[in-house]
Amino acid sequence: MALKSCQRALFQVLQSRISGNSLGARAVLLRNMSSDSPLNYNYETLAVTQPKDYVKQVEMNRPEKRNAMNQTFYREMRECFRQLAVDGDCRVVVLTGAGKMFTAGLDLMDTMGLFSGDLEVGRKAMALKQKVSEMQESYTVMEKSLKPVIAAVHGGCIGGGLDMITACDIRLCTQDAWFQIKEVELGLAADLGTLQRFPKIIGNDSWLREIVYTARKFSSDEARERGLVSGIFETREAMLEGAMEIASLIASRSPIAVQTSKASLLFSRDHGVPDGLNDVTTWNASMLQSEDLMKAISAAMQKSEPTFSKL
């Protein structure tokens, strides 16, 4: 047990290269070496379940508020995905929304509290910058975990919802889903990731600028045409079934191979080809020695399905 814990911890240290946070890497190492206790997923704004082997479903759970994102939600997203990153029973996450729509975006009434107080303008600006950075991390944490996240969108996906799904690996939606980068309509620029990640997802800069500057809604068909989503389903139930099918297939693969692939994709997104090639050799210098490689090859030769150990 101790050996497996150390191996898992070392892998998480390698994961931390994505964020460049050496202190965070050491913290993960110490935490994983010290305890194998079950993780607690009790949250106020999120409902976490395990519908399939190695698949966790994280559902935004404020249906009465159309899953509007308050400060509790942002804190719990950070806590939840940091736990998922080190959960040996999780290899893939499916992100959903409860109720009639995926999310209405930022909870405006809750957010107004960020502007209260009698601080002078410079100090208030510093406090706001810190708070917005924390909110950004609530989505970036999904990338840092290296476990693929599948966003399953139904109904509206507004404002902060776009920030969130652009940080996911795979995006699916229902036929009646619609999307809106709403921030310009409210008198500000989107600042939680849409303007940074969206251009790297789609290949049409002109269309992106149009929907950002106008803040107009766009449909599921337009989202697929432009490359934001990869699949459209007639109903929410069909979409969830499709998402779980994809998640289960990913979960059946070597977790080392999947997470190494995600790490390389993320690194290469933000670096040139030579740097990306060098980075993947560093990963594979370790991963090519993994038992997963031998298991996969052996299973292929025997025409059977391999079973991979937990990280």
Automatic annotation (TrEMBL):
PANTHER family: DELTA(3,5)-DELTA(2,4)-DIENOYL-COA ISOMERASE, MITOCHONDRIAL, ENOYL-COA HYDRATASE
A Pfam family annotated for this UniProt entry: ECH_1
Catalyzed chemical reaction(s): (3E,5Z)-octadienoyl-CoA = (2E,4E)-octadienoyl-CoA; (3E,5Z,8Z,11Z,14Z)-eicosapentaenoyl-CoA = (2E,4E,8Z,11Z,14Z)-eicosapentaenoyl-CoA
Main function: Isomerization of 3-trans,5-cis-dienoyl-CoA to 2-trans,4-trans-dienoyl-CoA.
UniProt subcellular location: Peroxisome
Protein name: Delta(3,5)-Delta(2,4)-dienoyl-CoA isomerase, mitochondrial
Family the UniProt entry places it in: Belongs to the enoyl-CoA hydratase/isomerase family.
Pathways per UniProt: Lipid metabolism; fatty acid beta-oxidation
Recorded coiled-coil stretches: none
Molecular function via GO: delta(3,5)-delta(2,4)-dienoyl-CoA isomerase activity
Species of provenance: Patiria miniata (Bat star)
InterPro entries for the chain: ClpP/crotonase-like_dom_sf, Ech1-like, Enoyl-CoA_hyd/isom_CS, Enoyl-CoA_hydra/iso, Enoyl-CoA_hydra_C
Cellular compartments per GO CC: mitochondrion; peroxisome
GO biological process per UniProt: fatty acid metabolic process
Gene3D superfamilies according to UniProt: 2-enoyl-CoA Hydratase, Chain A, domain 1, Lyase 2-enoyl-coa Hydratase, Chain A, domain 2
